[in-house]
Amino acid sequence: MSDITVDVAVIGAGPAGIAAGVGAKKAGAERVVIFERDWDLGGILQQCIHPGFGLHIFGEELTGPEYMHRWISKAREVGVEFLMNSMVFHMEDDGSFWIMNPSLGIKKVTPKSVVLAMGCRERPLGALGIPGTRPAGIYTAGTAQRLVNMEGYMPGNKVVILGSGDVGLIMARRMAWEGAVVLGVYEIMPWPGGLRRNIAQCLDDYGIPFHLEETVVEIHGKDRLEGVTVAKVDRNRKPIVGTERLVGCDTLLLAVGLIPENELSRMAGVAINPVTQGPYVNELLQTSKPNIFAAGNVVIVYDLVDWVSKEGERAGKNAALFAAGELKEPTRKIKILGGSNVRLYSPQWLSGQADATIYMRVAQPIEKRCKVIVEPGAYEKQLRYARPGEMSEVQIKAEYVQSLGDVAEILVDIREA
Q1: How far is CA 280 from CA 179, 261, 266, 400, in A?
Q2: Do 86 and 167 lie in a common domain?
Q3: Are residues 246 and 309 both part of a single domain?
Q4: Cα(187)–Cα(256) distance, rounded to whole angstroms?
Q5: E-strand spans in 16-104?
Q6: Nearest CA among 201, 193, 195, 194 for reference residue 174
Q7: Do 319 and 335 fall into the same domain?
Q8: Which domain holds residue 68?
Q9: CA distance 196 to 191
Q10: What three-state secondary structure class fits 74?
Q11: DSSP string, 148-217
């Protein structure tokens, strides 16, 4: 049983993985192979038939399949290889891994460097601890999206959506298009979880009620969902007694957060950030294992796919340089700390080898002029606003990092201007 030997191996053929393959080939890697467990390329964007992708990279609004078609065409043009129906089921400490493929059987893949691009998964009902029965009719928003857009099935007719993540907002509109009655979107936080444009285009334009600081507290039904009890919550996100009301429905869609898919990362011994639940990475998208890189939603959940692709391309480029022996192992490790209003951010440390883009999500919205602060030093960027559902970013030059001398940590925060 011969091994598969490659220069750069990419795990996952979604927006981050395809872009990583392109970046690796453009940087000179001879053999780049993308391994995908599905039978087709494109990842989650196969089922995202709505427009809104590609505005930053291609300068026009594309559907998910259109967006991925362009990247797949790029990958084929530069000579990226694809191995579909290939489930990676085990990773070794050195970055090699094992796949199962119906034609090849079980094979070991030995790469010079690896890019992890497995994406993320939805938070299921079991993670929420909502009391009640477990009838049919409860789906994650992404599962419902696949059923409607790819399989041709309608999950139900009277729909409640819990959570205001972008997929949930988009599915509110999609279900309304298919003739379902969307009774409301319920969000436990005081602000939306998704992009404001999706609130306007998917809820406001269709008269779909949006309830902030309310959540589902009980599920009803034996064989099929018959309804849910909703209630208002206090500042501690606890239900307020006396505000409960029953909403009759046959379908509940969950849009309550995404989790980076990192079983393989843990298996490889890559250090995981307990806050983002993705690998710790530096500005090169390099993990704690120098030959293993990670990009896209496997690191931190992004709001725009354009950023996922940009980070994937950068990770692929750096993985190719490492495979060729042209990328030095980091000699510095300056830790990034999030300030009081920065909840999630990536990367988590800097080596000073390249310019860095730090992506951040705020803990509390600031609906007026604000600024990104990087300390030490007078490093600032002005923003019109900062919202938890939308990522903010700041670029840091390698020269700035190199000028810090013996400084071991820098702080990033977003504050009112």
Answers
A1: 44, 14, 11, 21
A2: no
A3: no
A4: 9
A5: 32-35, 51-53, 62-63, 81-83, 87-91, 97-101
A6: 201
A7: no
A8: 1-120+257-328
A9: 10
A10: helix
A11: IIII-----SEEEEES--HHHHHHHHHHHHTT-EEEEEEESSSS-SS-HHHIIIIIGGGT--EEETEEEE
Clarify whether residues 93 and 23 are in a common domain.
Answer: yes
Residue 223 corresponds to which tokens in the numbers above? 């064989």
Same-domain status, 368 and 285: no
The CATH number covering residue 81 comes to: 3.50.50.60
Residues 112 and 10 in one domain: yes
Contact present, 183 and 156 (Cβ < 8 Å) = no
Lookup: tokens for 391:
């990522």
The reply to whether 111 and 219 lie within a common domain is: no
pLDDT recorded at residue 330: 84
Q: Choose the final residue of a domain: 256, 271, 305.
A: 256
pLDDT at residue 377, rounded to an integer: 75
Same domain, 397 and 340: yes
Q: What pLDDT, on a 0 to 100 scale, did the predictor assign at position 60?
A: 95
Of 135, 130, 126, the closest CA to residue 229 belongs to 130
> pTM score, two decimals?
0.94
Task: Please report, as a single letter, which amino acid is at residue 173.
Answer: R
pLDDT at 378: 59
Tell me, what CATH number does 364's domain have? 2.60.40
Domain final position from 328, 353, 383 = 328
Q: Which pLDDT does position 402 carry in this prediction? A: 86
Q: What span, in angstroms and rounded, lies between the C-alpha atoms of 135 and 121?
A: 22
Contacts with 108 (C-beta within 8 Å, 6 or more apart), sequence order: 1, 3, 4, 96, 97, 98
Q: Tell me which residue of 250, 256, 162, 167 sits closest to 214, measured CA to CA.
A: 162
DSSP letter (8 states) at residue 391: -
DSSP for 306-341, written as a single string: HHHHHHHHHHHHHHHHHHTT-SPPPS--EEEEE-TT
The residues of the chain scoring below 70 in pLDDT are 1, 378
Structural domain total, the chain: 3
Q: Residue 325 forms beta bridges with which residues?
A: none
Q: Which of 181, 166, 162 is nearest to 233 (CA)?
A: 162
Tokens 């480029």 found at: 317
CB 149 within 8 A of CB 65: no
Per-residue H/E/C for 88-148 = EEEECCCCCEEEEECCCEEEEEEEEEEEECCCEEECCHHHCCCCECCCECEEEHHHHHHHH
